[in-house]
Design brief:
There is one protein chain. The protein is α/β, with parallel strands linked by helices. It has helices at about 10-25, 30-50, 60-75, 90-100, 130-135, 140-145, 170-180, 275-290, 315, 335-345, 355-360, 360-365, 380-385, 390-405, 440-450, 455-475, 480-490; strands spanning about 55, 80-85, 105, 115-120, 180-185, 210, 230-235, 245, 265-270, 290-295, 305-310, 320-325, 350, 370-375, 405-410, 415, 425. A hairpin with a 5-residue loop joins strand 15 and strand 16. The longest helix is centred in the first third of the chain and has 20 residues, at about 30-50. The chain is elongated and about 80 Å long.
Length: about 500
């Protein structure tokens, strides 16, 4: 099992194309399935110990992977059972089923086991489980549940729900996972949309998801990601490349013996109507490693290492400023607009957050000739770029191309996109980040990275990573001030 940091992320179509390229070289589909099933089996065997295992197999190739995994687990000495939704529908899955020497139980009659493996539906699902499998004109939920399965089970017996309250595949999956102590999904929990991260049918929350060959967007995009649990990658012998990758731990060197405050980077933070927000951004820039931070505007108080000055064009003209952060607490009045105009005209690399995003339009951002990083949350993104039903990766990539800026589309599933199409997806961060001021802290951390000389995509990625790591180290119920302070230990961990 491979950790996901820095790994490529492929859509369902891209993964199929990668597999087809291997098949075109003469490698049979059955061989790829055997590789996948064997990798699954070894991962499950390592985690299950002496516990009995129940593998749920669907009709497609995901189910075929499950049959192979069951066979290999049995060969390894594990106690393993197989329950199937229906007969296999692909040649490779039928061959895998034939290779499993044990019985196949009807899914509706399967009894629980301590370890459950979901190989029903993985990558490529496009419709809800019930609507996609049941006859669409079923007159009742009970009738729809009865139509989910063919008339006869794989062992020849009649299908019947395991309990009166179960009317669907999803119900049965929930029942079996509740009774298990370890739950593992193959490629994706059944019911998730691979590319968008949408939930087509609500699955249980799994302890572990084993991604086959490459990460998929649903492993990282919400709400799908919350059902995957821990995600690990299994190598199945399919070479993959992608311009979309999971955010990786940054490589940030400590200062050398010749370093001084300006070589470490000077950040200017512009204050506005809510001075506390700018204070947080400035503190974050300092804790993230900037050598010199100056706060321009009305503000007072510690830390004393923060240089405070009046907002003037002369102060903005300091050619040692490596990045300007503007937007946290800026306001939207005439004074705020004037300060934003002056900041844009100063010619320094920019981190635009909060109110600055609402005062500038995409065309004006596009016209800027300096490096620019935008850090919108969902509401600010909609105001700037309009609402859309597209997935978050597509929206962030399109916004970056439209503005020529790196876009950090914040949220529980932060997406970082560059104008050239490269994308970095941040793994799920602490839910405790849902508190006021944490976005200001992120803007300051990114400003420190940009002032240090990193290119905009690398600066945004490093800032997001430090922000997430600081949240992890802060534990529960932290406030933004705690988060800014924790950037120091996050930076020290590199």
């Amino acid at each position: 099992m491979i950790r996901i940091e820095g790994q490529p992320v492929l859509t369902a179509a891209e993964m199929r194309a990668a597999e087809d390229a291997v098949i075109a070289t003469g490698v049979p589909v059955d061989t790829l399935m055997d590789r996948a099933g064997t990798a699954i089996a070894h991962a499950v065997h390592r985690l299950a110990g002496s516990n009995a295992i129940l593998i749920l197999c669907g009709p497609g190739n995901n189910g075929g992977d499950g049959y192979v995994a069951a066979r290999v687990l049995a060969e390894l000495g594990a106690t393993v059972r197989v329950a199937a939704l229906s007969q296999p529908r692909t040649d490779a899955a039928r061959a895998a089923r034939a290779g499993w020497p044990g019985p196949v139980e009807p899914l509706a009659k399967a009894t629980p086991a301590p370890v459950l493996v979901d190989a029903l539906f993985g990558t490529g699902l496009k419709r809800p489980l019930d609507a996609g499998i049941a006859t669409p004109n079923a007159s009742s939920p009970a009738e729809a549940g009865a139509q989910l399965n063919p008339a006869r089970a794989p062992d020849g017996s009649a299908w019947a729900p395991a309990s009166a309250g179960e009317h669907s595949v999803a119900d049965r999956l929930h029942t079996l996972t509740k009774a298990a102590t370890l739950t593992i999904a193959v490629d994706l929990p059944s019911g998730l949309a691979t590319d968008s991260g949408h939930v087509l049918t609500t699955p249980p929350v799994f302890h572990l998801t084993l991604a086959l060959g490459a990460l998929k967007p649903a492993h990282l995009l919400q709400p799908a990601a919350r059902y995957c649990g821990e995600v690990r990658l299994l190598d199945i012998g399919v070479p993959v490349t992608s311009r979309t990758e999971v955010l990786a731990r940054p490589q940030l060197a400590p200062p050398g013996p010749d370093a001084h405050k300006y070589t470490r980077g000077m950040v200017g933070v512009i204050a506005g109507t809510m001075a506390g927000a700018a204070d947080l951004a400035a503190l974050a820039a300092m804790r993230a490693g900037a050598g010199y931070v100056t706060l321009l505007g009305d503000s007072a108080g510690p830390p004393h290492a923060l240089v405070r000055a009046a907002f003037t064009e002369r102060a903005l003209a300091n050619d040692r400023i490596g990045a300007l952060v503007i937007g946290p607490g800026l306001g939207r009045d005439a004074t705020a607009s004037a300060r934003l105009d002056a900041a844009v005209a100063a010619g320094h690399p920019l981190v635009l957050d909060g109110d600055a995003l609402r005062l500038l339009g995409p065309d004006r951002i596009r016209a800027l000739t300096v490096p620019v990083i935008l850090t919108p949350h969902a509401g600010e993104f909609d105001v700037l770029f309009g609402q859309s039903d597209d997935d978050k990766i597509t929206r962030a990539r399109d916004a970056a191309a439209r503005t020529g800026a790196v876009v950090v589309f914040k949220g529980a599933d932060t997406v970082i996109a560059a104008p050239d199409g490269r994308v970095r997806l941040a793994p799920g961060a602490s839910d405790w980040l849902s508190t006021a001021g944490t976005g200001d802290v992120l803007a300051g951390a990114i400003g420190a990275m940009l002032a240090a000389g990193l290119d905009p995509l690398a600066a945004a990625a490093a800032g997001v990573w430090l922000h997430g790591e600081a949240a992890r180290r802060s534990g529960p119920a932290f406030i933004a001030d705690d988060l800014a302070d924790a950037l120091r230990s996050a930076r020290a961990s590199l």
